[in-house]
Specification:
The complex is a heterodimer of chains A (301) and B (46). Chain A is mainly alpha-helical and 301 residues long. In chain A, 75% of the residues lie in helices and 0% in strands. Chain A folds into two domains: 153 residues, Tetracycline Repressor, domain 2; 132 residues. The relative contact order of chain A is 0.11. By secondary structure, chain B is mostly helical. Classes of the chains: A mainly alpha (301), B mainly alpha (46). The interface between A and B is medium-sized, with 17 and 18 residues.
Chain lengths: 301, 46
């Protein structure tokens, strides 16, 4: 292992290592949900300004990731899933990761303000603040409700996208927020069920570590049912999504509940259902928002 | 004294920082042009 405290000037980090600080896979989901919020919103935004707004949201999401790696370097080092990140590996020192995150946050907020409006920029700033300060600094190490409350940060991108396009926030983007907010617990607790040892070693009080598998599975099922119901709700809104989206949301939601039920009734110690639910949960959110995007594009056509 | 690999990576980082700053300035410039053009068009059409 390299010396984590080595000065940045002599660092062995490549641009690719800095890019990995941005959590590119998480960014993909943020970009996609923000795109759906932006496209589903009424009103026309100049395509180039829309693209720049999306880029700013993506940079803001990446900045949150870098700041999270700055703050959580100690626990990342003891978790198998995160030990290969550039800070615990000693490729990038903590202060450089923090500075990188701060510069990117400021750039993203200014860029979004210029490309769209002050509300969208303020929402992006709040998202970064919520993820870094509320979730990473205050909740993650102190309560098993960490990802429930912290999930609000991950749920905000479609609202930011909507605000960028319209300069306002209404019920429709709040439903998109609600879907991701309710989806977050079953998604992350599925991961925690098969990575329980990791979180216990790092001292992170995830639900399975604190309340046990049985209680976690029960709560996951409840959240999955609520997610499926919230997923269908845009189809019932006046002027909302159409029947194509409604049908897709029903099928996807029923499958999400089914996979959660498999976790609920699984034998203790059986990790497979949780792994399947984790994989499906990612597919669910992408597919649901893809259906919403297709529906919005059909309506705009 | 830097080792050749460290030197190469530092050059890569410098290039990436330069390109990122250049791209950011260009983006700000283009966004400003688009916003100004949009406002002129909006005023012209009443």
């Amino acid at each position: 292992m390299r010396d984590a405290a080595a000065p940045a000037l002599f660092s062995a980090a490549s641009p690719r290592d800095y890019f990995s600080l941005l959590k590119p896979r998480v960014m993909t989901l943020v970009i996609f949900t923000a795109l759906v919020g932006l496209v589903a919103a009424p009103g026309a935004m100049h395509p180039a300004l829309g693209a720049v707004s999306l880029l700013a949201i993506a940079i803001g999401a990446g900045a949150s990731g870098a700041l999270n790696m700055w703050w959580d370097a100690d626990i990342d080092a003891v978790m198998a899933r995160t030990a290969c990140r550039p800070v615990p590996r000693g490729l990038i020192d903590r202060s450089s990761a923090g500075a990188f995150g701060v510069v990117l946050s400021a750039s993203a907020i200014v860029l979004l303000w210029l490309a769209s409006n002050v509300l969208a920029a303020a929402l992006l700033a709040f998202t970064i603040f919520f993820y870094v300060v509320i979730y990473s600094m205050l909740l993650k190490r102190s309560t098993p409700q960490n990802i429930v409350i912290g999930g609000a940060a991950g749920a905000l991108p479609p609202v930011v996208g909507w605000a960028a396009a319209t300069g306002s926030v209404s019920l429709e983007p709040m439903l998109l927020f609600l879907i991701i907010f309710l989806w977050t617990p079953p998604h992350f607790w599925a991961l925690a069920l098969f990575r329980e040892g990791d979180y216990a070693r790092a001292g992170v009080p995830m639900m399975p570590v604190v309340k046990g598998e049985k209680e976690t599975r029960r709560q996951m099922f409840a959240y999955a049912v609520l997610t499926a119901l919230a997923g269908v709700s845009p189809a019932f809104l006046a002027g909302g999504a159409g029947p194509f989206y409604g049908a897709a949301a029903c099928v996807l939601g029923a499958s999400f509940v089914f996979f959660s039920w498999r976790v609920l009734v699984a034998e203790s110690g059986d990790k497979k259902p949780a792994k399947r639910l984790f994989a499906y949960s990612i597919f669910y959110l992408f597919a649901l928002f893809a259906a919403l995007l297709a529906d919005a594009l059909l309506r705009h056509a | 004294m830097l080792e050749p690999d460290q030197n190469r990576r530092r050059n890569q980082r410098n290039l990436a920082i330069g390109l990122a700053i250049g791209a950011f300035i260009l983006l700000i410039y283009l966004v400003t042009l688009l916003r100004v053009a949009g406002n002129i068009h909006a005023h012209a059409t009443g």
